[in-house]
Specification:
The complex is a heterodimer of chains A (308) and B (200). Chain A has 308 residues and is an alpha/beta fold. Chain A has twelve helices and nine strands. Classes of the chains: A alpha/beta (308), B alpha/beta (200).
């Protein structure tokens, strides 16, 4: 594995190993000296063409705790705002001799495209509506911490599936780890071609949240991405909440052992109520704290060894 | 990505315990190993004048099992429960860049910490000394022990760094081309040390 562009790049063994290493990294995070020498002398550039708080800062901290030099380049305030193309920006940065690029871009497939132009290792930190593999890894990591082995566990991913890059990565990774996945969304937010996709990948999907709720081990609520919508997906926010929000009533229907995830940032009151977000079963803050450990593990696995 | 290969100990031998007569010759039997560990435990308490402030840390994989046994023996000898843990050195190795990415083992530091303690590092084979150097670096990031001692089951020579063991189960002169295989009940279902390969 040279790059991490998609959750599909990870074999079952790779995924388990990254999750196991993340556990060790999590311990390092609780130490007084949070520094490991594994990436000493390596340089990582965070190339962010889209806004981000938690992903960019957790990649930055992860790189620094592994002793790499980390530089952030964001579209705003760089030559990108002067009209430089993705290719020129990537090649310019790579020409400085960096070892790794962490890329977030609004276009699906941008990180893959960059791998064809530069030699450096590339991590996809979210590309358009395509994938966000490190988010899927940290979701799996947090769920695993609470639920144990994910094989055979029932996970529902609920919400704006059409605009979500998290859903694809999560679906692929959870399937790799052997979980049973159900996608739930209003018909307008269900990706087109879902019937073929679910048949090919072996997951189920439905339009009725209440029907799947009592059998779940984990429920993952996705953010309604207002910024990617031009309206018309559902009549009113209230109607969305009634049909697909994690409300107080649905919390009661959810089994006691089940956990609640949300990749953030949350729209409280829309897809998730404050009650659900602040519940003991909610892993939302654990997800943030796991973000650094999981990204340390990913960087270690990609850059820690000899180039293959 | 693959399992850690502690190749300088030459002890990676997963699953072959069931295989027909293993190659090489036995240099330490189960009895020899247990006597050597008992002597090391005595040496440790003698040198430390008791079991106070001791922390025993095993270097994975087989150092962990040896550390646990040593602590059991210390409890027998001194009646004191010495804290035991494990110290993975994978991320401090100096050959990370020349190998495919290695899996990281578990590090567990006892609640009491290592600051101002006498840390006894335990490993199965002392060879080049590079694993021990990595362990010393790892310890430095975890705290500041009052002293660090090194206990090994086998010292096979061929040091590449100025490192020596304080407690040695057996000094075993070997050729560089030979491999020392330590197998322990906890990991391999049998206690023995064999020398494999070489010209003979």
């Amino acid at each position: 594995m040279k790059h991490l562009l998609s959750a599909a790049d990870l074999s079952h063994d790779d995924a388990l190993q990254i999750l196991a290493t993340a556990e060790q990294m999590h311990d390092v995070q609780r130490r007084e000296v949070k520094k490991l020498p594994v990436l000493r002398g390596r340089t990582i550039v965070n190339l962010f063409f889209e806004d981000s708080t938690r992903t960019r800062s957790s990649f930055e901290i992860a790189g620094k705790w592994l002793s790499a030099d980390v530089i952030n380049v964001s579209a705003k305030g760089s030559s990108v705002s002067k009209g430089e193309s993705l290719r020129d920006t990537a090649m310019t940065v790579a020409a400085m001799g960096v070892d790794g690029l962490v890329i977030r871009h609004h276009a699906s497939g941008a990180p893959l495209q960059v791998t064809q132009w530069v030699d450096a290792m590339v991590v996809n930190a979210g590309d358009g509506t395509h994938e966000h593999p490190t988010q899927a890894l940290l979701d799996a990591y947090t769920m695993q911490q609470r639920l144990g082995d994910l094989a055979g566990k029932r996970v529902a991913i609920v919400g704006d599936l059409t605009h979500s890059r998290v859903v694809r990565s999560n679906l692929i990774l959870l399937r790799t780890l052997g979980a049973d996945v159900t996608l739930v969304a209003p018909p307008t937010l269900m990706p087109s071609g879902i019937a073929d996709w679910s048949a090919a990948e072996g997951f189920s999907y439905g339009y009725d949240f209440d029907e799947v709720l009592p059998d779940l081990d984990a429920v993952m609520m996705l953010r309604v991405q207002k910024e990617r919508m031009s309206g018309g997906y559902f009549p009113t926010p209230r109607e969305y909440t009634v049909g697909y929000g994690l409300t107080r009533d649905r919390l009661r229907a959810l089994p006691d052992h089940a956990v609640i995830c949300h990749p953030g940032p949350m729209n409280r009151g829309l897809e998730i109520t404050a009650d659900a977000a602040d519940e003991a079963r909610s892993l939302i803050l654990d997800q943030v704290s796991a973000g650094v450990a999981v990204r340390m593990s990913v960087l270690y696995h990609l850059l820690g060894g000899a180039e293959s | 990505m693959q399992r850690p290969d502690f190749s300088d100990a030459g002890s990676l031998d997963p699953g072959s315990a069931q295989a027909a007569p293993p190659p090489g010759r036995t240099v330490l039997s189960a009895g020899d190993i247990s006597r050597a560990l008992r002597r090391i435990a005595h040496e440790i308490v003698e040198h430390n004048k008791g079991a106070d402030d001791l922390v025993v840390l095993g270097i994975p994989t087989r150092g962990e099992a040896l550390a646990t046994r040593l602590v059991g023996l210390l409890a027998e000898i001194e009646g004191a429960q010495v804290p035991v843990g494990s110290l993975d050195v994978t991320m401090y190795r100096d050959d990370l860049r020349s190998q495919p990415t290695r899996a990281v083992g578990a590090t567990f530091i006892p609640e009491s910490g290592i600051d101002d303690k006498v840390v006894v590092l335990v490993d199965d084979v002392l060879f080049s000394g590079r694993t021990v150097r990595a362990a010393l670096d790892a310890l430095g990031d975890l705290g500041r022990p009052r002293a660090v001692r090194l206990a090994v089951l086998v010292d096979r020579g061929h040091r590449e760094l100025p490192i020596r063991a304080d407690h040695v189960g057996k000094n075993l002169p070997t050729a560089r081309s030979e491999r020392v295989r330590v197998r322990l009940d906890e990991n391999d279902g049998v206690d023995e040390v064999r020398i494999v390969g070489g010209e003979s």
